[in-house]
Amino acid sequence: MSDPAITLYRLQACPFCERVVRKLHEYDLQYRSRFVEPMHSDRDIVKRQSGVRTVPVIVDENTGVTMAESANIVEYLDATYGEHGVDAAAADATVAGEGS
Amino acid sequence: MDLGFDVVDLEEPAHPEEGDTAPDFTRPLVNDEYWEDVALSELTDDGPVALVFHPMDGAFPATYIWNELRDRDIDAYDVTVVGLSISSPYGHKTLIEERDLEDRDVRFFSDPANGVAAEYGIVNDLDGMTGISEPRPATFVIDEERTVEYAWAADQWPDFPDYDEFEAAVERVSE
Fold it and tell me: Which CATH number belongs to the domain containing residue A37 in this structure?
């Protein structure tokens, strides 16, 4: 299995997470899902990654971005991978360059 | 086990034997913090794997098996130790906590539809639990090429792994 550049920390059935998933699908982005605990206090992995215990959190190795809050993430994905995404071309190049 | 009466014999298992290639599969793999889809072949790419099929989390055999393997420090060998049952990822989180495996290098595949057991020829249909089947207890040691180095599956119900044999096989591949 390939190792996707994008990791999504998510909670099963969390609408904010599904919002991000819809956007990832829209831009046909490969991503890895990591499901965490319903209890905030048990989400140390998310805290270590992003500084907060809320999900969704996205980690994008294409750009080095780690981000929380679904509205911010959607905005980021639009800006990065959308039609007018400034970084889309650069990100594609990164993906193509295996092992970078 | 010597109980003074006959326990239930299971049909002859048809699992992969030593020298066979272990069937690959992808399932959610649960650690103490999260779960994500992982393929067996991803694990074997990193080194040998000890794969333990066990009854559903909460059943006493699951408890006994993981207490024993924990107490033997099976994860201290240079192998990846993974369990597999039909329990949900939430069930596995509880198992990890209750069996005191949080700081251990042990993770659990979740396979509620029991498809992996079907691939491995070790399905155990549970009498009195209509619609539920699970893997029969089984242990495999699998090398980096995904070749089976050691295989054992229960031929009675209930039955428990031969821990000494299993640990010896784990020790052999980790050398």
Answer: 3.40.30.10
Residues of B near A (Cβ–Cβ under 8 Å) read: 26, 28, 33-37, 39, 41-42, 89, 93
For residue A70, which of A22, A4, A1 has the smallest C-alpha distance? Answer: A22
B95-119 tens-digit pLDDT: 999 999 999 999 999 999 999 999 9
pTM of the full structure: 0.90
- Whether residue A34 and residue B39 make contact (CB cut-off 8 A), yes or no, is no
Six-digit token pair at B20?
Answer: 């066979």
Summarised one tens digit per residue, pLDDT across range A26-47 is 999 999 999 998 988 888 999 9
Q: Which residues in chain B are contacts of A36 at CB distance < 8 A? A: 33-34
Q: In CATH, which of 3.15.10.40, 3.30.9.10, 3.20.20.80, 3.40.30.10 is domain B8-174?
A: 3.40.30.10
